[in-house]
Specification:
This protein is an alpha+beta fold and 289 residues long. Helix content is 19%, strand content 19%. It folds into 2 domains: 18-137, Ubiquitin-like (UB roll) (Roll); 149-281, ADC-like domains (N-terminal domain of TfIIb). It has helices at residues 37-43, 95-111, 120-127, 161-166, 205-209, 218-225, 277-281; strands at residues 19-24, 27-32, 67-70, 77-78, 89-91, 149-151, 176-179, 186-189, 215-217, 234-240, 249-255, 258-263. The protein has a 5-stranded mixed sheet, sandwiched between helices. The longest helix is centred in the middle third of the chain and has 17 residues, at 95-111. It is globular, with a radius of gyration of 21 Å. The N and C termini lie far apart (57 Å).
């Protein structure tokens, strides 16, 4: 190891990235090479709406709600995927950006039930979107074919996050994919078989990344159906999974002394937000006598 080589607290070599200077909304800043416009905007405290983006997944560029205006570019660009370049001049709240985001929100609301999507109503208010402008979504029956979670495809916006979590980005099971075309496209298993008969291993990583509530823990779904789901009455407890020696980080979501779902911190160096079936669903023994 060369003298003076940078290392992290564990002693591993650290590769120093060059800094890239750009301008966002009139503010000039420097960020590490390889950062996205979304990363840079976040460092300035700019709240950019995102739906198909997840910190632990490859950007899919599907929802387009995070688009920004880049001077010199013909079209608006997705801030979640576009890497910063020296001298970039970016506008995150121009009239063109606001109009695009408003239209995207209205189109989504016309085809997908966004009622369980965090911040959606807030974004509609921010951009003056009228959710019923282009019509309302068609109701669809909930798919209930296993004991752990339910699939409500009326809420599915085809963000591809569940497909990525099941595939290359996390589980490498490839149990689900996009089937059909156009308005008939949906997320499905091979030959549309029930999940218990498919390649699914019930890790629940698809549930963990779903942004709209199309995939829900059974407990959450039942509470929502009974109009009893209340996040203001919920507490979160961080712990370590007890099942093996890997040491996965868990966050228990508790309502009325009952665990209603289990997640994992995206920033965890062990899990990066992903879990196995035991870590995510193996809590039913708690509280039983």
């Amino acid at each position: 190891m060369a003298a003076g080589s940078p290392t992290d607290p564990t002693g591993r070599l650290v590769t120093l990235r060059r800094k890239v200077q750009l301008t966002i909304d009139g503010a000039t800043l420097s960020v590490s090479e390889g950062s996205t416009i979304l990363d840079a905007a976040k460092s300035l405290g700019i709240d950019t709406p995102t739906l198909c983006f997840a910190q632990n997944l490859t950007p899919a560029n599907a929802c387009r709600v995070c688009v920004v205006e880049l001077e010199g570019a013909r079209t608006l660009v997705p801030s979640c995927a576009r890497r910063v370049e020296p001298g970039m001049v970016v506008h995150t709240d121009s009239a063109r950006v606001r109009d695009a985001r408003r239209t995207v929100l209205e189109l989504l609301a016309s085809s997908v039930d966004m009622s369980a999507t965090p911040k959606f109503a807030e974004w509609c208010e921010r951009y003056g979107a009228r959710p019923t402008r282009f019509g309302t979504p068609t109701p669809r029956p909930v798919v209930d074919d296993n004991a752990l979670f339910v699939r409500d495809y009326a809420k599915c916006m085809l963000c591809y996050k569940c497909v990525e979590a099941c595939g290359d980005d996390a589980q490498h099971t490839f149990a689900i994919a996009v089937a059909g075309r156009g308005a008939h496209a949906t997320i499905a298993t091979e030959l549309d078989t029930p999940l218990p008969d498919s390649a699914c291993v019930f890790c629940g990583n698809c549930v963990g990344v779903c942004p709209t509530g199309a995939l829900q823990f059974r407990a959450e779904h039942e509470l929502r159906e009974a109009d009893a789901w209340d996040e203001s009455r919920q507490s979160q407890i961080d712990t370590i999974c007890p099942y093996c020696g890997v040491g996965c980080s868990l966050t228990l979501h508790v309502q009325d002394e009952r665990i209603v779902k289990v997640t994992s911190p995206v920033g965890s160096e062990v899990t990066h937000g992903h879990l196995c079936v035991k870590g995510r669903f193996g809590f039913e023994y708690l509280g039983k006598r």
